[in-house]
Design brief:
five-stranded mixed beta barrel; Rossmann fold; 3 domains; eight-stranded mixed β-sheet; 412 residues; alpha/beta; OB fold (Dihydrolipoamide Acetyltransferase, E2P)
């Protein structure tokens, strides 16, 4: 079930009493779904599938309620003690790893099931399995992170709030970033990072990355996948599924970033067009001098620019997309304009937008041949979807090879 985020949660006009309920589903944002006896649906923090808990209502939005598990009456076998002193669901506790109280195996299965449900709606009775690519290290994996500080405290926002929680250590960070956190804390109190509430500035953003000893202050770092090991798994998956039968096929890559996927495509195909809106990213790709790779600058959220791009790419055989959370909102332009298109490789970080965009290809006669759920961010509800769609109207371009047993976990 998907939690609607279009309208803000509001505290109830009157205090609703706590009630007992059973979690019947897990929402898209990771909260447990509980139906009260009167039929009202609540999205509940801190409760897992199948658990019976005492639910304390905290907010409402229309006919939907929100709450927190004040007491677990019947615990799931998947429940565990979170290995972090800051984990919790109040404004005084860190909300960064909301699934830390659940075993890693159960987290992964919940993510796979979520992708499977979406796939079954798109392509019922397809027979396509959803592969699961787990992380070898569900802790200590983050190569970058954004802290907030007011010059006195340094840490993350409390769960569901803008309250700053002072953090001394974070078990999800890599060893190097843990050391950077310790170094930053030694500078507190720091008048250069102090808040200026008169100007509406309540905190400073500190962006840290393994590649630097110093934080980037209030300036976002160039995009990079935050889990190196799982990014390597993703590239390995791509390398295997794009083994071409015809290496002369022309490839169009959208949202190419700094060339994370381009490097794999360049090694497989003679002609790759990598498209990105950010000129610095395009220059970064061009600087690698990969044979056969041409770069283009295009705002992929502007219809006029996308229409012009599609008109110039009529000989595209393979489309590779890795959009941000918003997805490829102009997918119909691709479906209608890329007449030679035979294969689509769609990598997504959001199940809802992946399903929305994929539906346009399904309606045009494409069908899924490979789908995988990759756990890029353990301890969170986030899941990366790796998928391949092919058209039945032409001979296939790709000769898919299977992942190793260690990487590919199927249904029991």
């Amino acid at each position: 079930m998907k939690a609607n985020k279009r309208h803000p949660e509001r505290r109830p006009s009157r205090r609703e009493p706590a009630f007992e309920g059973v979690v019947v589903d897990i929402a898209s944002d990771g909260r447990g779904v509980v139906k009260r006896d009167d039929g009202k649906v609540f999205f509940v923090k801190g409760a897992w599938l199948g658990e019976r808990a005492l639910i304390k209502p905290t907010a409402a939005r229309g006919s939907i309620g929100f709450g927190v598990a004040a007491e677990v009456i019947e615990a799931s076998p998947a429940r565990q003690q979170a290995p972090c002193d800051y984990h919790g669901f109040s404004s005084a506790e860190c909300g960064g790893c909301p699934w830390a109280f659940v075993s890693y195996g159960a987290q992964c299965e919940a993510k796979r099931q979520r992708v499977k449900k979406a796939l079954d709606k798109l392509q019922p009775k397809s027979g396509v399995e959803v592969d699961l690519i787990k992380a070898d290290a569900p802790w200590g994996y983050r190569n970058r992170v954004q802290f907030k500080t007011d010059g006195k405290k340094l840490g993350f926002f409390g769960s569901g709030s803008n309250e700053l929680v002072d953090i001394w250590d974070c078990p999800v960070l890599s060893h190097k970033n843990q050391k950077t956190l310790a170094s930053l804390r030694q500078t507190l109190p720091n008048k250069h990072w102090s808040s200026d509430k008169r100007r509406g500035k309540h905190w400073v953003n500190l962006h840290i990355d393994e590649s630097s000893e110093q934080p980037s202050i209030d300036v976002r770092l160039p995009f990079r996948q935050a889990n190196d090991a799982q990014n390597a798994r993703m590239l390995d998956w791509l390398e295997q599924v794009v083994s071409p039968v015809d290496d002369s096929a022309e490839v169009l890559e959208l949202f190419a970033g700094n060339g994370n996927l381009t490097q794999v495509l360049a090694a497989k195909f003679a002609a790759v067009t990598a498209v990105e809106a950010d000129m610095n990213s395009v220059q970064s790709i061009a600087g690698n001098h990969w044979p056969g790779v041409e770069t283009k600058v295009c705002d992929l959220f502007q219809k006029k620019e996308v229409d012009a791009l599609v008109a110039a790419m009529t000989s595209t055989d393979v489309l590779v997309m890795d959009p941000p959370r918003e997805g490829m909102t102009l997918t119909p332009a691709l479906v209608g304009g890329l007449e030679r298109l035979r294969t689509v490789v769609y990598i997504s970080c959001d199940v809802a937008t992946w399903a929305r965009d994929s539906a346009a290809f399904i309606d045009a006669g494409f069908s899924f041949t490979r789908v995988a759920a990759l756990d890029m961010f353990p301890q969170t509800p986030h899941v990366e979807i790796l998928s391949v769609l092919e058209s039945p109207m032409a001979s296939p371009i790709l000769g898919h090879r299977f992942l190793s047993t260690e990487q590919r976990v199927l249904d029991d």
